[in-house]
Structures are given as C-alpha cells and as structure tokens.
Amino acid sequence: MRIIVGLGNPGEKYSHTRHNVGFDVIDILSQKLNIPVKKLKCRATIGEGILGGEKIVLIKPQTFMNLSGLTVSDALSWYKAEPKDMLLIVDDIDLPFGQVRLRSKGGPGTHNGLRHIVQCTGTGDFPRVRVGVGAPPPEWDLADWVLSKYADEAARKIAFDAYMLAADAALCWAEHGIDLAMNRYNKRHAE
C-alpha cells in the first residue's frame, strides 16, 4: 500500500497558487497513472489504483491546509497504513524556487499543514517531497505570498518543471522506496 497526499487548499480561489503545489502534483500523478481523484472519503478527494501490483492511493485533503492532519490521520486509519507508507507533497518557502527535495522524515519547519499533520499523527516519521516556492520578497506578507499565483509565463514554466520532477520522484518512491528516490532526485540539484 502506498498513499500519496498532496497538500493544498480546496476551491478555485486557491487553484495553482504556491501553497497548492501538492494538489497540482496529485493532478499530474492522476493523469500519469490514469487514476481519477474524485471519490469523497476521509475529508478528501481520493483516487485508488494499482502501481507495480500494489495499491496506490492519491489524496487531496479538502480540510484546508492548516487542518491537513485531519485527512491524513483519517486516511492512515481507513487504509490501516503506517506513516512510512505515506508520502506528502508540500510547498516549501525555505527551498529556492523550482528546487525539489525528498526527506525520509523530519519536523514541520515553518509549514502549518505539516505542523498539523505531526500534531494529529504524533510523528514526523513520514517521507515527503518538498517543492521550493522561494521565500517571499521583503515587501510581501508570507500568507499573501503562498496564496498567490505565479506572475508570468517564465515562472509558471519553472513551477511546472518542478511539479513534473516531484511527480516522478513520488512515483520512484512508490515503486522503489525513499532511499532510492532521495538518491536519484536529490542529486539532480547538487550537480
């Protein structure tokens, strides 16, 4: 069993904002795997399918970012899964724009969605794909920054490339585990 949770906020108002990286990557995975993400379960829209002979579940929480832990704890319980069987896809203001990094576990950092997940599950021992959206410029409020859309075509291209890379990294994790995925995808930015 593999569960991939893309964090974001529901509603058209938040569509394709920096904070909705997780939703956009889940949409890419949905297309790549031909798994519609439309079922309502665990306070989320969910798609279920098979990858490499194993069940895979794609999840977009509908609780809003700061309450993401409700969906994650519901899903872990419903699917009788361990946190290590779940991969989170999140935006990260501490990573340069367009950079993708995988971690096997860790704390929530400055991310309120991750903070709520750690609070609800009692652990940070779950793998995650972090997609850099960059820090806000000095004149920007943090909330306004993460809830804003990319300003121009060049920025949208960088974001799309990062989302595609994050989707590939998530598939690598699902098929081969976190160690190989980190080895394969974290190196790309060190070269």
Can you tell me about this structure?
This protein is of the alpha/beta class. Helices cover 38% and strands 21% of the residues. It is built from 6 helices and 7 strands; from the N terminus they run E-H-E-E-E-H-E-E-H-E-H-H-H. It has a 7-stranded mixed beta sheet, with helices on both faces. Helix 1 crosses helix 5 and helix 2 (68-78) crosses helix 3. The longest helix is centred in the C-terminal third of the chain and has 24 residues, at 153-176. The model has no long low-confidence stretch (mean pLDDT 94).
Distance between the termini: 33 Å
Q: For the residues shown, what is the average pLDDT? A: 94
Count of helical segments? 6
| Strand proportion | 15-25%
Low-confidence stretches: none
What Rg do the Cα atoms give?
Answer: 15 Å
Count of beta strands: 7
Structure classification: alpha/beta
Tell the overall outline. globular
Helix and strand run: EHEEEHEEHEHHH
Trace the largest sheet across and list its strands.
Answer: 2-3-4-1-5-7-6
Biggest sheet, open or closed, and with what strands and sense? 7 strands, mixed
Q: What percent of residues adopt helix (DSSP H or I)? A: 25-40%
